[in-house]
Design brief:
- It comes from Streptomyces fradiae ATCC 10745 = DSM 40063.
- Removes the 2'-phosphate from RNA via an intermediate in which the phosphate is ADP-ribosylated by NAD followed by a presumed transesterification to release the RNA and generate ADP-ribose 1''-2''-cyclic phosphate (APPR>P). May function as an ADP-ribosylase.
- Helices cover 32% and strands 18% of the residues.
- It is of the alpha+beta class.
- It has two domains: 3-76, RNA 2'-phosphotransferase, Tpt1/KptA family, N-terminal domain (Arc Repressor Mutant, subunit A, Orthogonal Bundle); 97-177, ADP-ribosylation fold.
- A hairpin with a 5-residue loop joins strand 7 and strand 8 (166-168).
- The chain is globular and about 50 Å long.
- 27% of the residues are buried.
Length: 180
């Protein structure tokens, strides 16, 4: 499978395992899982034929490890807009986390903090480099520092997904470090 097709399939999977499973006839369970065979049949019906080996390649080579494959089932690791409970236990975050965004969003973030928008959680990166990659998807990246240690002490709950993305409900402005 060439790189272009791998990226195309990854984006298609993200759309349907995170946001629109019904569009291709999938039904996710409460934790976001779907049978691999059901997914492969749905993909074929919608003009994206894929073998199990190709699916495993997409999962294994995805730079952000967006998908979790567990035996005969698959799900998106996080980022859902459909109702799922990933069953992630609370976790103690590192003292600092990072969030990549763009300058156009800074005014709203200064006023309201980081909100999940259409997703279930705010997504935070464990390192600056990842936050830069995330922010650069929408333009020139701006990286904010999150005082996750202080948030945790203040009672905010964190979870960490299978691919290392830190999740929380909201990051208040007082816990954000803005670039000068």
């Amino acid at each position: 499978m060439d790189d272009r097709r791998t990226v195309k399939v990854s984006k298609y999977l993200s759309r349907h395992l995170r946001h629109q499973p019904e569009r291709i006839g999938l039904v996710l369970d409460e934790q976001g899982w779907v049978a691999v065979d059901d997914l492969l049949r749905a993909l074929a019906r919608h003009g994206v034929p894929l073998t199990r080996t190709e699916l495993e390649h997409v999962v294994a080579t995805n730079d952000k490890r967006r998908f979790a494959l567990d035996g005969d089932r698959i799900r998106a690791s996080q980022g859902h807009t459909v109702a799922v409970d990933l069953g992630l236990p609370p976790a103690v975050p590192p003292s600092l986390l990072h969030h990549g965004t763009v300058a156009a969003a800074l005014e709203a973030i200064r006023a309201e903090g980081l909100r999940p928008m259409n997703r279930h959680h705010v997504h935070l990166s464990p390192d600056r480099e990842t936050a830069v990659r995330v922010g650069s998807r929408r333009g020139r990246p701006v990286v904010l520092t999150v005082d996750a240690g202080a948030m945790h002490r203040d009672g905010h709950v964190f979870h960490v997904s299978a691919n290392g993305v830190w999740l929380t409900a909201h990051v208040p402005p007082r816990h954000l470090g803005f670039p000068a």
